[in-house]
Write a structure and sequence with these properties.
This protein has eleven helices and eight strands. By secondary structure, it is an alpha/beta fold. Helix 2 crosses helix 11 and helix 7 runs antiparallel to helix 8.
């Protein structure tokens, strides 16, 4: 069975656009749960551009399923995670000037620091995942630093799918899909959980969901976008149905 983690960051983006109190991402988490979400994902960024500390505090108290905290690998964020104790923390690269996360974490380039941060969180009872590219070097480094899961960055696949007529049979889309699949196999062979996410939507998700051994998909922007028209509960249910039938 594949689990769906719903990222509700962009509910907070809409709230922050007016610097007001609505829509409340805490309410969004409840709606996502009622739609069938298996986890709620939020990214607490250094600049607090959307999700803020208050949201994480309240979500920790109210989420009735798994809470996945996406975060940079900084002392501040590790400290927050160890205090809040989400069920899962996903370490991601972070840049102040990026619109969204633009690539996977360079695990191989910072093994010592990541190993220390991961050990702190695991000691606090937090399940730790790393958001990485489908690169054998990064996957092997993830295992060495103690990650329990790797979330493969599916952005290159999603862009290849879109740029080639939304044709999954295109050479480019097939090549990127194969990279994700090979990466997933390597992750599982090293004893870690195979997750995936980024830029997945209602037309490109099924080939990823059909990959052998995949455990969790984390999807946000597409679900929140559809929710504008059909409501969040329905948008989550529709995505969950696509994943289950893949």
């Amino acid at each position: 069975m594949i689990y769906l983690g719903v990222n509700i960051d962009h509910v907070a983006t809409l709230r922050q656009a007016r610097r007001t109190y609505e829509p409340d991402p805490v309410w969004a988490a409840a709606e996502a749960h009622l739609g069938g979400a298996d986890a709620i994902t939020v990214h607490l960024r250094e600049d607090r551009r959307h999700i803020v500390d208050r949201d994480v505090e309240l979500l920790r108290q109210t989420v009735q399923t798994k809470l996945n905290l996406e975060m940079g690998a900084t002392d501040e964020m590790v400290g927050i995670a160890c205090r809040i104790k989400p069920e899962m923390a996903t370490l991601v690269p972070e840049g102040r000037h990026e619109v969204t996360t633009e690539g996977g974490l360079d695990v191989a380039g910072q093994e010592v620091r990541l190993k220390e941060n991961i050990a702190r969180m695991r000691d606090a009872g937090i399940y730790v995942s790393l958001f990485i590219d489908a690169d054998p070097r990064q996957i092997e480094a993830a295992a060495r630093v103690g990650a329990q899961a790797c979330e493969i960055h599916t952005g290159p696949y999603a862009h290849a799918f879109h740029d080639n007529g939304r044709d999954i049979e295109s050479t480019a889309a097939q090549a990127e899909l194969a990279k994700v699949g090979v990466g997933g196999t390597a992750i599982m062979q090293l004893g870690m959980r195979f997750n995936a996410g980024h830029a997945l939507n209602y037309v490109n998700v099924q080939p990823i969901a059909a990959l052998p051994g995949i455990c969790e998909l984390h999807i946000g922007h597409a679900i929140v976008s559809r929710a504008v028209f059909v409501g969040l509960r329905q948008a989550v249910a529709e995505m969950k149905a696509l994943i289950r039938t893949a």
